[in-house]
Write a structure and sequence with these properties.
The protein is α/β, with parallel strands linked by helices. It has one domain: Alpha/Beta hydrolase fold, catalytic domain (Rossmann fold), CATH 3.40.50. It contains 7 helices and 8 strands; from the N terminus they run βββαβααβαβαβαβα.
């Protein structure tokens, strides 16, 4: 049985894609890009833009993998609300340097020009709130299929996500039984349900199908309360699968986003190390 019953596909009107390629550089919704932004080169990598064939069309995506035939362990990298911009691309390159095929699909490409959005409020109102979760799950399945046909190892499939992507990691961990591991970097646990986004992490935490690691900020992050985080961890543990949530009490939301003022290097480095260990411990790396 699909534990995400109720996530209706809600096909969007066929008007052609607004976005035909990814954001170049950083999102306009960021007021400034701080100097500590990490830049990972492509030496020894095969990296660049690609297209993911979905159930209804194609979505732009960015991938990075080691040079060679593979097959490589695969990580689906799920964007923040700001789109697949330079930070998300760099995450893919960092993972590729660790031996993974990492791919980040622009899941919101059907809905508007993310590069033209100038605030998080505008992004949420015009893009994010209009994205059906059922279609998102289908698009993630399509991304996994693309990876399996492009030097990825389908037997070593995992997912990580940041901010809104952290929320979506929980949904996909409850959706895809083929996942070996999942890692959520913060993001909302709750939220008011809608017809196209009827469930959140708290609703599906007890239905996960793979080990899940959560990396969350403390009380400085209003997107998830301490009580919600504890409830999600308890529900995930009730499945009998390995589940753990680490809370960084001094961190704010977006503490891993090195291009933003919220970046906390100490906590970001620790979270990254834990993420890599989680993937390898659970045979996804």
């Amino acid at each position: 049985m699909n534990e995400l019953a109720g996530l209706t596909r809600f096909p969007l009107a066929r008007r052609g894609f607004v976005m035909s390629s990814l954001i170049s550089g950083f999102t306009l919704a960021t007021t400034r890009v701080d100097a500590q932004a990490i830049q990972t080169d492509t030496a020894g990598l095969d990296a660049g833009e690609t297209k993911i064939t979905t159930s209804d069309s194609q979505l732009p995506a960015y991938y990075a993998r080691p040079q060679g035939a593979g097959p490589f362990p695969t990580v689906l990298v799920v964007e923040e609300i700001f789109g697949v911009h330079e930070y998300i691309k760099d995450i893919c390159r960092r993972l590729a340097k660790q031996g993974f095929l990492a791919v980040a699909t622009e899941y919101y490409a059907r809905l508007g020009e993310l590069q033209d959005m100038t605030s998080a409020m505008q992004l949420d109102g015009q893009i994010i709130s209009r994205a059906p979760d059922g279609l998102l799950m289908s698009d993630m399945d399509s991304t996994a299929e693309w990876a399996a046909s492009n030097h990825g190892d389908p037997a070593r499939l995992s997912i990580i996500g940041f901010c809104r992507g952290g929320r979506n990691v929980w949904l996909y961990a409850a959706h895809n039984p083929k996942l070996k591991a999942a890692v959520a970097f913060y993001g909302p646990m709750g939220g008011a349900p809608t017809a196209i986004q009827p469930k959140g992490p708290l609703d599906v935490a007890g239905q996960i199908k793979c080990p899940i690691l959560g990396l969350y900020a403390g009380t400085k992050d209003p997107s998830s309360s301490p009580e919600q985080i504890k409830q999600a961890e308890a529900a995930a543990k009730s499945t009998g699968l390995d589940a753990q949530i680490i809370v960084y009490p001094d961190a704010a939301h977006g503490f891993h986003a090195d291009y933003r003022p919220s970046y906390n290097k100490t906590d970001a480095d620790d979270a990254w190390t834990r993420m890599l260990a989680w993937l390898r411990t659970h045979k996804a790396g």
